[in-house]
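User: For this week's homework, look closely at the record that follows, marking any run of repeated tokens, and judge whether sequence predicts the tokens.
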Amino acid sequence: MVKAVRIHQIGGPEVLTYEDISVGVPGPGEAHIRNEAIGLNFLDVYYRTGLYPSPTALPLIPGHEGAGVVLAVGSDVKDLKAGDRVAYTNPIGAYAEERLIPADRLVKVPDSIPLKQAASMMLKGLTAQYLLRQTYPVKKGDTILFHASAGGVGLIAGQWAKHLGAIVIGTAGSDEKIKLALDHGYDHVINYNTENFVERVKELTGGKGVDVVYDSVGKDTFDGSLDCLRPRGMLVCFGQSSGPVPPFDLGILSRKGSLYLTRPTLFVYIAAREALVDGANELFDLVAKGTIRIEIGQTYALKDVATAHRDLEARRTTGTTVLIP
């Protein structure tokens, strides 16, 4: 038996229970891994609260990213062996000391990257990769707006976008978070608690607006994000930490300048094994070179996950957060 965190019913952080589970042995196409560290993400909150429907029947083990060591593999797994250092960002089930996982969802972690760091950046780093390199491919000279710039994805995206040659504008909610974002690639960071971010973006861009807005906040920023775009600009809604965007008149996109709107998800972009490996290798390479710094802002014991969720929802966290089994 090993320890895991399970959800038996949707609700607040109190529904996260720390209990014993049995892992079993890996079947065909599976690997048995021991988690060294587990990433904490707002996605975990969405499943806990029921905002996203559970992919399996309850009880559910949440968590979408982690890193550890392979203990055993199924008989038909050829490219992994016991002792390999690996990381992953899907499927759900990371909040456990050990787990079984499809072997084709694991990527090998270079020796230059600590497993704790790898666990903290798989979901967030690959999210930044698909947003900046695929959904709207950022190029030199583009001006972008990235909400929640001091969050886990935001800090990675700021550095990556700057590396690509963009002018990078962010939003954050405190002086501490603004300073953090400015230290991670952002040219300008707007305090959304004291400034009107739409007016400030127009001021910074000479009234032109930005080429793309990356918005993981949702309801509270949606209308303003549209108003920040240049004609034919793109709004990329990839999260909803403030709640889902209400239904709206599609014609608003034409009236505001023939705008583009998309709601992508990471797991579609990395569904193919080749896409997962290519994205992870690009991320690992930039981290190994020091182009992107991955700094863990908070660490919690896995048994204290309820506290971690409360802090995340109260916006008391910055950067990446990991749980240690």
Summary: The chain has ten helices and 15 strands.
